[in-house]
Amino acid sequence: MGPLPRTVELFYDVLSPYSWLGFEILCRYKNIWNVHLQLRPSLIAGIMKSSGNKPPALVPSKGKYLTNDIKLLGQHVQVPIRIPKDFFSVILEKGSLSAMRFLTAVNMEHPEMLEKVSRELWMRVWSRAAEKAGMSTEGARALLEKISTPQVKNQLKETTEAACKYGAFGLPVTVAHLDGQTQMLFGSDRMELLAYLLGEKWMGPVPSAVSARL
Amino acid sequence: MGPLPRTVELFYDVLSPYSWLGFEILCRYKNIWNVHLQLRPSLIAGIMKSSGNKPPALVPSKGKYLTNDIKLLGQHVQVPIRIPKDFFSVILEKGSLSAMRFLTAVNMEHPEMLEKVSRELWMRVWSRDEDITEPGSILAAAEKAGMSTEGARALLEKISTPQVKNQLKETTEAACKYGAFGLPVTVAHLDGQTQMLFGSDRMELLAYLLGEKWMGPVPSAVSARL
């Protein structure tokens, strides 16, 4: 029997475009590297509040920079990211509380659906212009009803607090459980470093699963 | 004749550890990729002031994170970075004004020495926890890089002249015009467009934009040519 897979936790929020990039990269590598990927839906607003940090876009030159950065990374990572028309409104006003509570409920009752539903929510906010107010979810009424229950609210709170305990001040946060130590990495741009820490091969953000096995 | 090399500017400050990481990666790739690397000594304090940004370490959990991040990246990028004992004092109180003015003077009179002298200043502050603010400290770095004592002293005398002061100011303003809010900033001059990238962690993206191969932060020049 080979070595046990190492657990890699990904704390993310669908409000965070960089979370989407990190998510797609890890979803590709989870079947290539010897890892067990644990998706952890979190609330970036809670992390900002807890850490005293602020969304980067509040510094004007950072905001300008990251709209271009996200566009370029979208091309490189092959994720169809497009900045929503009303970028500030999306992030600062509309937020993601219901969406992340919904994903928390999905994770509690149908964890096998979590990856797909997370992706669909990102596609709504960060790929097609957010024309609809909020993020409705057709065909998931039962789960939708659960998002305001104490269990779901508390679970999202706990997951967000877990990220904060690891030292998060933003998202995405990747936590690698290595032999004898735990490493927290911030950002979608720490995946090559993650490979190095895991002793795995980095083949860029779009690895070919076929060539990995040759 | 092959295609013309593309110009890649690197704006950096020796006060910035991430600048050192970016600098070493680009120095390795400058002889592998078809690029012309232009080193641009800048003042990170000036960029922060201009952009209204603040050093990341002022958010406590960011400060804690980046000391570990720098350590891990140092291992991965194979740069002997070590956090100075009094980190805040080095960054927020002592600064790098004289050092960056000195590098500006080096760039104006002996540009072929700029890479080595820059590296020796980083080695002082970000590897051996040594001072870079005193004239003696800067001279020691210049000599270690291979400059003669006389040559280094002559340049040191020039750092308070208007020409050198203005040149550092202009270079820093150029970075700000490109949209910088911190360092390192890499500016790639591609066919028809200019792209500004922030951080030592955008080198793989730079390779993608240049149409060049990314072989990790420690490329083997030999294997690149096979």
From TrEMBL, chain A:
rRNA processing is among the record's keywords: no
Entry's EC annotation: 2.5.1.18
Ranges for domain DSBA-like thioredoxin: 7-198
Keywords carried by this UniProt record: Transferase
Keyword Transcription found: no
Reaction(s) this enzyme catalyzes, per UniProt: RX + glutathione = an S-substituted glutathione + a halide anion + H(+)
Gene Ontology BP term (one): glutathione metabolic process
Gene Ontology molecular function: glutathione peroxidase activity; glutathione transferase activity
Residues at the catalytic site: S16 (nucleophile)
SUPFAM superfamilies, sorted: Thioredoxin-like
Enzyme class, broadest EC rank: transferase
Pfam families registered for this protein in UniProt: DSBA (PF01323)
GO cellular component: mitochondrion; peroxisome
Sequence similarity: Belongs to the GST superfamily. Kappa family.
PANTHER family linked: GLUTATHIONE S-TRANSFERASE KAPPA (PTHR42943), GLUTATHIONE S-TRANSFERASE KAPPA 1 (PTHR42943:SF2)
Protein name per UniProt: Glutathione S-transferase kappa
Automatic annotation (TrEMBL), chain B:
Catalytic residues (positions): S16 (nucleophile)
Cellular component terms (Gene Ontology): mitochondrion; peroxisome
Gene3D superfamilies according to UniProt: Glutaredoxin
One Pfam family hit: DSBA
Residue ranges constituting the DSBA-like thioredoxin domain according to the UniProt record: 7-210
Domain of life, source organism: Eukaryota
Catalytic activity annotation: RX + glutathione = an S-substituted glutathione + a halide anion + H(+)
The keyword Signal is assigned to this record: no
InterPro entries in the cross-refs: DSBA-like_thioredoxin_dom, GST_Kappa/NadH, GSTK, HCCAis_GSTk, Thioredoxin-like_sf
The protein's Enzyme Commission number: 2.5.1.18
Family: Belongs to the GST superfamily. Kappa family.
Listed name of the protein: Glutathione S-transferase kappa
Species in which this protein is naturally found: Pipistrellus kuhlii
